[in-house]
Amino acid sequence: xxxxxxxxxxxxxxxxxxxxxxxxxxxxxxxxxxxxxxxxxxxxxxxxxxxxxxxxxxxxxxx
Length: 63
Known about the structure:
Layout: H1 6-20, H2 25-47, H3 52-57
């Protein structure tokens, strides 16, 4: 994958246009952005530690 130039990216863009067609590209870009946003939120929530929901599921110690 080393050595990709601008020409390679233009060829890839043309192939994507041929496969998906110009009218479908905005919907494709929107869904990719939505997926990236969801992934970013999920990764961020896992790094924060236990949430209130997971703490409520744990058994409480008896006094």
